[in-house]
Amino acid sequence: MSESYSLSTEPDGMAAALLARFNSGKVSAMMTLYEPGAVLIAKDGRTVTDHTEIAAELERDLRLGLPLEAKARHVFVPAISPRSC
Known about the structure:
Structural class: mainly alpha
Mean pLDDT: 86
Low-confidence stretches: none
Distance between the termini: 40 Å
Number of helices: 3
Shape: globular
Order of helices and strands: HHEEH
Helix content: 25-40%
Number of strands: 2
């Protein structure tokens, strides 16, 4: 049975979406957050853009079996200029 995870349409809901996916323990749930061209910063500071490598990095974190807790203190939303619409 496949599980469904909601994705917020508002920036302040992204932390909850990340937490739900991470705490599921499933890399496949986490990978839905990474679009083509996404960048993950690895623990050693490397930038990782390949989805296979991103999945491997996430798998290492998930294998620890520790729950992730987070609380967004600030959400920054870039202003969109009328010309970019």
